[in-house]
Specification:
Structural class: mainly alpha
Number of helices: 22
Strand content: under 5%
Number of strands: 0
Helix content: 55-70%
Largest sheet: none
């Protein structure tokens, strides 16, 4: 007995024009008595009417294509000719005996609605530069495809733009490192897309390469072949969006693991560019994912490299991006990373007043005191909250003695009088802490004035 194909659940085909089309097709399929795939395919082959006023079945779908139509195996709208052929044949078999032409017209209206809903507006190009689309899984109906260049072009012509970036990653950048010859072939493919007036497809391949472990090699091949604009596109998209595993792999290749000469000028420039090109959200995702890239027993170079990334973000990001990053890390519960950035800000960010003013402007003034406290705190042997052990050198800049008088002048000049008063109070607390730690409590009267607390 023939096993009918069931209507897929909403988890696979969500409500909307596409599901409306599929539901109507299944009602017609039921009315026809759930015919088997082989009889349907054979009937469609015999269904062509040569008369001009009876076009008959336009398409010739195979059994697999018919099954795909009934399962909803289309991410936008199916090929109209194949759908028309199936509707034509099912309508002729339906116990309701509907007018076949009217039934085809009814399905054509449903098909147009599904087609319009599945397409992005023609003027919209945002999909090509959306990094999330390159990392999302392909729709279930497309996962078994082998994504050759021809298949990717076909998907582009079908207008299935939301699935195209993932298909590009699967077909061009599946992981691992590619030979220079393969990268050159990809450059030729990109140039062909420009010539065929498919610039968005060319850009999708470039962006996919920018997110792959081969992004630096791909950029180098483009530069060598004189494609400077494309090379710059790869560089910028990579700096802005490269995922943590590929980022860590790239950083690792810049390090001579047997020396202490890190960071070197190349890695400093790379980390500086990354910090200056990423949004707060992108930096938050990167910093929270990087600890997962370290080996189980982190080696010294890994600890050094991770600390250097933190230092780069804390010193090279713009004031607004860094302030938003600190706020986002707090909201996401990434407190350890936030504390680490506080320490790196204190160690090397100059000037610090603009950041403090920005934190106040975005309602993050509560973070100012912890930052200032780290300027003056003297750790004890029992305190591990504020100063974490790390190998030197750890920063893009050498840690320097930030003179308290210079800091006070910087804050006063910037109009941050409240923060300047906080520093003065912390200086007093710091002095008392030093005295108590070293047991150097002077007898009363040894100084001209008794100890003063407060302002």
């Amino acid at each position: 007995m023939n096993q009918p194909i069931t209507m897929p659940p909403e988890s696979e085909v969500s409500p909307g024009p596409r599901r409306d089309l599929l539901a109507a097709l299944h009602r017609l399929y039921q009315d026809a008595g759930y015919p088997g795939l082989r009889p349907l395919a054979e009937a469609i082959d015999k269904n062509e009417d040569k008369r001009a006023d009876e076009p008959g079945a336009l398409g010739r779908p195979s059994r697999e294509a018919i099954a795909g139509l009934l399962r909803g195996s289309f991410t936008r709208a199916p090929v109209w000719e194949n759908l028309q052929a199936l509707v034509w044949t099912l309508a002729k078999r339906s116990h309701r005996r509907p007018d076949v032409h009217a039934e085809v017209s009814r399905f054509h209206a449903l098909w147009l609605a599904a087609d319009s809903a599945g397409k992005l507006p023609a003027q919209s190009e945002s999909w090509v530069d959306d990094p999330d689309l390159y990392h999302q899984p392909l729709p279930r109906v497309l996962r078994k495809e082998k994504w050759t260049q021809a298949k990717v072009i076909e998907l582009y012509h079908r207008g299935e733009y939301q699935a195209l970036p993932a298909a590009v990653m699967g077909g061009f950048w599946p992981g691992g490192h590619l030979s220079d010859g393969m990268l050159r072939a990809y450059v030729e493919f990109v140039q062909e897309q420009y010539e065929e007036h498919r610039p968005l497809l060319a850009r999708a391949v470039l962006n996919g390469g920018a997110l792959s472990p081969d992004h630096r090699n791909f950029q180098g091949v483009l530069e060598h072949l004189g494609q400077d604009d494309d090379a710059e596109q790869v560089r910028l998209f990579s700096l802005q969006n490269l995922p943590a595993p590929a980022f860590w792999s790239s950083l690792s290749t810049m390090i001579d693991h047997g020396t202490t000469l890190f960071p070197d000028p190349e890695s400093i420039q790379y980390l500086t560019d990354t910090a200056r090109h990423r949004t707060a959200s992108a930096l938050s995702a990167l910093l929270q994912a990087l600890p997962e890239q370290l080996s189980y027993r982190a080696e010294k170079w890994e600890i050094r490299a991770l600390a250097t990334v933190h230092a780069a973000v804390a010193t090279q990001s713009t004031d607004l991006v860094l302030a938003e990053l600190l706020a986002q890390l707090h909201d996401e519960g990434a407190l350890s990373t936030m504390h680490t950035l506080w320490g790196e800000i204190v160690r090397a960010r100059t000037p610090i007043a603009p950041l403090i003013a920005t934190l106040r402007q975005i309602d993050q003034a509560w973070q100012i005191t912890p930052i200032l406290r780290r300027l003056l705190y003297v750790p004890s042997s029992a305190d591990h909250e504020y100063v974490a052990p790390r190998p030197e050198p750890y920063s893009l800049r050498s840690a320097r003695d930030r003179g308290t008088q210079a800091l006070l002048e910087e804050l006063d000049t910037a109009g941050l009088s409240e923060e300047a008063d906080t520093v003065r109070f912390l200086i007093q607390i710091n002095g008392v802490t030093r005295v108590l730690q070293h047991g150097m409590v002077a007898p009363y009267g040894a100084t001209n004035e008794p100890p003063r607390w407060g302002y």
